[in-house]
Amino acid sequence: MKKLTFLAAVLLLTVNAFAQRSSNSKELFIELREPGMYTVYVNDEMAGSAKGRFRFYDVEATAPTITIMENNRQVVKTSLNLESNSRTVVSYDKQAGFRVLKTLPLFSNNQYVLDNWDGSNIQMGRPTDGRPTNGRPSYDGDRPARPAVNYAMSDASFNELLAVVKREDFDANKAKMIKTSLAGNRISTNQLAALVKIMDFDGKKLEVAKLGYDSVIDRQNFFKIYPLFDFSTNKNQLMDYVSKRAANL
Fold it and tell me: Region Disordered: which residues (predicted)?
């Protein structure tokens, strides 16, 4: 009897944990109406863009701090309340300030239903490429997968990211900034090579190369990363990592 009670308690905790993760999901999309080269921070996550649209997924805070920078100058800093299990789309210009354009639900029947800026439905039981799944959910794990982005950062956006990372004094800070920036962006092998090269220590080069592998759109060119290491042990570790990741992708 005690064993059954314990198992029931574990099951209840698991269900509650899953429900909490789903209900706390938040996304923030920011559109800047005025032209310019901007960098946007949502708490410690950064995104750069020359097109004026910035996407932040898995925002943890209910009222995150938003900071907009233009040419290394702070334009505005404020906080914004976000609804759980929703994508909040906002616009900003210097005259009108921030305006919430829409709030869109992220899930329907536990299915991620947004695949573009304005939101559109993905049919239950079908992945984004349209292949039937025989009624099964079109994602792995307990969180529906977001649609893949199949293009790399523009040269202008990447150069801005590179400049921001270079201003950091320590490899640890550089790696953290790269990690947050790649969360919502894809890059080319050449762009990843540029990020690896600015690291001072071989161990951090390895960390950045691993961080960037899943974000690279042209993995057939990933061999260009291996000669960037000073020590063969780190190069071999990366090759082993890539072999394991490639088998799981």
Answer: 123-143
